[in-house]
């Protein structure tokens, strides 16, 4: 849905076409948006309550989980079309994405630009950057940090543009079976892009005032440095869709996949304690993505407890996750402003912010998201 972040951190509640609902993905979406929420609450509340920093310190990675989920879900839909022998329809794909994302996003952008009270910071980037989804390039977090977490949605929108076009190209030249090499090449290029960004763009600013701003600007936000999670999701979807025998063997170890993923995430936590080092900047993102990839693989494995565990709470939060992602920072800030002068315990204030954020997300979902999804069904017949 940052700084998410995530997209900050970003997840869309998309359902994989399957006869069995994948409850594990609902759990992960709920976890990811909760992680992102706590991270941003940590920033906006100056680290209160006192126990929050220990939990929120790694919360920025919730966006990486969202990227893996998006890569898996979106590519699974496209791969399913290919597997059935159909051509990918750009109009069908983009209309579905439009009705799912753009209405709620534009309403949120409108609130930010029309009502200054609904801002967590003073200044916004130019409107055209939000409308063209280019806000994540050259973002000055200090001077234009309002609605900064929309950067992760920019990354996903770029992914939505490139993925179907790439698949259509591979279909047209009949080289789809070799497309896995492209994934590996793009994954490897990510290391090179971040190495260049660190040594050439960021390093000259190390030691200067506000050097952290340049790290976010040149390394954290740009799309070309954040493709790892999406590529891991695409890789998982490829195995899930086109290698059923391999997937059947792997999915028998669902809980082991979850444990392995958590182990990699613990390693990534220590690697990324100081995000702005060369090792963390170049190798931290792919390690996080692979770790979350193992977790996602475990969540969709019938042998794992996450696959079998049904939770109305997880499903409800997952349904609201996009609306929470869009609005949570402004609602946290507004709630804090309304509670100024009220001598409440910091834990109570956090609880109130959770409630107000859920209510705002519920209203956005019911008044904007759901009506446009119904319209999408009539227009696209999905």
From TrEMBL:
Domain (Acyltransferase): residue spans on this chain: 23-365
Keywords: Acyltransferase, Membrane, Transferase, Transmembrane, Transmembrane helix
Keyword Repressor: no
Gene Ontology, cellular component aspect: membrane
Membrane spanning stretches: 28-46, 58-78, 98-118, 150-170, 182-203, 223-242, 254-271, 277-300, 312-328, 348-368
Pfam families attached to this UniProt entry: Acyl_transf_3
GO molecular function, one term: acyltransferase activity, transferring groups other than amino-acyl groups
Any one biological process term the GO annotation gives: lipopolysaccharide biosynthetic process
Highest taxon of source: Bacteria
InterPro entries named among the record's database cross-references: Acyl_transf_3_dom, Acyltransferase_3
PANTHER family in alphabetical order: ACETYLTRANSFERASE, ACYL_TRANSF_3 DOMAIN-CONTAINING PROTEIN
Protein name per its UniProtKB record: Acyltransferase
Species name: Spirosoma terrae
